């Protein structure tokens, strides 16, 4: 049984990394439908305040993990036990590591040309035995989608990682969930870039201190406008009267 709370009307599952991985493995075992996994941080939650399509997708997602120190803080500020941050990058690595021992089939979609292929090579070196059945860059056109979807189906992945950026990746996965027929579909943002070495992740101490956002701002100043979502998120949480909690509704 899982607990789900609402942070500014966006549902967030109260899970640890280990619990999230267990839930995802349950989705993989259930091959009757496609399950959308979202990694929600403060920026995504603020996008959902004005993007009704994204908000609707998040409300219907099968698992929404707390990816971001701001999400953990917001839950705890309102008195709910959020055990830890479940970062999207770390969740992807946990899935890849598990896939190396289970034989789960993985597909990587997104990033600039060549990035997904480099991420595949890194994963194969880091997790011997991992079965990445295909890659494709994220600069495809609408005219390419039918062939791309057919290729993904033919490779029969158990999990597809999609790195198209928020909210494009969530919208694309939701739009094509039936055509994909993949048990687990998860948007992973810049994960491939980090794996490929084109983007560096914050030092561990900054991650643990909840300062990964600051590292991103320092290393990528062009993100400054996007980062304005963080103080807006804090203000909205501080002035929100309550967070709703739904115990036992997610099995």
What would you note in describing this structure?
Helices cover 49% and strands 19% of the residues. The protein has 14 helices and 9 strands. A 6-stranded parallel beta sheet has the order 4-3-8-7-5-6, sandwiched between helices. Strand 5, helix 6 and strand 6 form a beta-alpha-beta unit. It is globular and about 50 Å long.
- Quick one: overall form? globular
How are the strands of the biggest sheet laid out side by side?
4-3-8-7-5-6
The proportion of residues forming helix, as a percent range, comes to 40-55%
**What is the makeup of the main sheet?**
6 strands, parallel
Radius of gyration: 17 Å
Order of helices and strands: EEHEHHEHHEHEHEHHEHHHHHE
Mean pLDDT: 90
Note the total helix count.
14
**Total count of strands:** 9
% residues in beta strands? 15-25%
Structural class: alpha/beta
Distance from N terminus to C terminus (CA atoms, Å) equals 5 Å
Low-confidence segments? 247-251
Explain briefly what this protein structure is.
By secondary structure, the chain is an alpha/beta fold. It is built from 14 helices and nine strands.
């Amino acid at each position: 049984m899982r607990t789900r709370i609402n942070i500014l009307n966006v549902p967030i599952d109260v899970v640890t990394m280990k619990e999230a991985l267990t839930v995802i493995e349950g989705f993989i075992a259930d091959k009757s439908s496609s399950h959308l996994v979202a990694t929600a941080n403060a920026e995504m939650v603020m996008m959902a305040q004005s993007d009704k399509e994204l908000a609707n997708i998040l409300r219907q997602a099968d698992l929404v993990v707390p990816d971001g120190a701001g999400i953990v803080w917001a839950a705890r500020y309102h008195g709910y036990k959020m055990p830890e941050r479940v970062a999207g990058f770390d969740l992807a690595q946990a899935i890849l590591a598990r896939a190396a021992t289970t034989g789960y089939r993985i597909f990587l979609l997104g990033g600039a040309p060549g990035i997904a292929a480099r991420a595949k090579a890194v994963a194969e070196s880091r997790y011997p035995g991992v079965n990445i059945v295909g890659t494709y860059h994220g600069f495809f056109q609408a005219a390419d989608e039918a062939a791309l979807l057919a290729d993904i189906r033919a490779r029969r992945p158990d999990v597809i990682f999609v790195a198209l950026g928020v909210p494009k990746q969530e919208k694309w996965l939701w739009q094509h969930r039936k055509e994909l027929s993949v048990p687990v579909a998860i948007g992973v943002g810049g994960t491939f870039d980090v794996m490929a070495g084109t983007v560096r992740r914050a030092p561990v101490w900054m991650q643990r201190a909840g300062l990964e956002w600051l590292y991103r701002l320092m290393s990528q100043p062009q993100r400054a406008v996007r980062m304005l979502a963080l103080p807006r998120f804090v203000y909205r949480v501080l002035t929100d009267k309550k967070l709703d909690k739904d115990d036992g509704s997610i099995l």
